[in-house]
Amino acid sequence: MTTIEFSNELKWGAATASYQIEGAAHEDGRSPSIWDTFSHTPGNVKNGDHGDQACNSYHLYKEDIQHLKELGVDLYRFSISWSRVMPEGTGSLNEKGVAYYRSLIEELLNHNIKPMITLYHWDLPQTLQDRGGWENRATIVAFEEYAEAMFKEFGGQVKSWITINEPWCASFLSNYLGIHAPGKKDLQAAVDVSHHLLTAHGKAVQSFREIVPDGEIGYAPNIGWLEPFSADVEDQDACRRGMLWQKEWFMDPVFKGSYPEELILLFEKQNAFLKIEEGDLELISQPIDFMGINYYTGSLGRHQENAGLFQVEEIPLDYRQTDIGWPIYADGFYKALTDLKETYGDIPIYITENGACYNHGVEDGKVNDQERIDYLKQHLTSLYRAIKAGVSIKGYIVWSLLDNFEWAEGYEKRFGIIHVNFETFERTRKESYYWYKNTIEKQRFEIT
Ligand code: JJW
Fold this sequence. Notes:
By secondary structure, the protein is α/β, with parallel strands linked by helices. Helix content is about 40%, strand content about 20%. It has an eight-stranded parallel barrel, surrounded by six helices.
């Protein structure tokens, strides 16, 4: 038997996001976001699912916080719905929307749980999309206004903030691959959106320093690790290109103040041009307090002429995948974390998301999700190894507290450590919930 033991400094948490859990889409003055529009357009989301009700956490947040309390987490990561608090995208605040988050934060603090707020978890107000969305630089100004309003409202009590969640998804997956809202397939649009998201991040960091000088702020890029299939230069190059797209494109500007030249040229060959205005890179590269890393999966990468823009074909390392079809690659988590330190230096890191999709149902009042426990053990072992290798890890936040609306995959794909019945909204703690609770309490777990 081997014991993996963590120090008391490591913070534990659980995460959710507004559109995925809140529901109450038409209540108390909330306006539609791009995800309302996208999910209500046939063909975009599996089974025609949408977030109108989701987990009904807008009404059940006290019950959810009770689950968090008993879980024993130090922090809860959630996101604010921009269109709930600022329905017109800019301008006046919706008091009822603001009141909801004020109550949520109060309830968390009363239970001694630290709130960590994500400002942008993909639900852009539709009214801004109607004016070009993130392709339009006016949205950067709107985001700054929204962020400032939130810092002023909540910065007194909430000290941990994330500007943008998974900018790769919000730009390329959404505007080039067409899989997420707004569902475009336009490389130029995606390149513009990626740069504007990062610039908006920079603007928000700048405001944050003024308004919440004692707080910490970062952003949360996602990484899927690509390990070269062979020692062939072709495979090595293919993986490098694949990683440039996910990693360097979204991290070099923040930590080095530049975009990777190789990728700029590759986009140019496709007639997509990076348009930077004076001052953008200075804004983007302002120091941040931590990097949030979302890690789920990784693969072997092999050069393949016809495999997309980057000619990299992904091959699962072994034959186990989670129920969403993502290969399990816990060693890639260790590799990604140690690589980040080598590339960008000793930046404090929160694991802002890690978790697994398994669709177990309730049987005799129980959800036996042993596969999820195994996944968490493997990934926490990699995290432990990364800490031993000198990577500064501030916290680990599991995705997700609840089964929820898994974007284009709808409700069928379950990531929660708590099961949700989407007809009755009944919550049932899974075995992984109890395993995680025990791990947090003891600060250790055993591998047998
Ligand atoms: C990639 C699939 C074709 C969320 C992707 C689809 C097809 C080339 C989970 N993280 O629900 C990535 N999630 O809200 C944020 N992360 O392409 C939180 N990444 O590719 C979770 C989906 C995702 C994806 C989903």
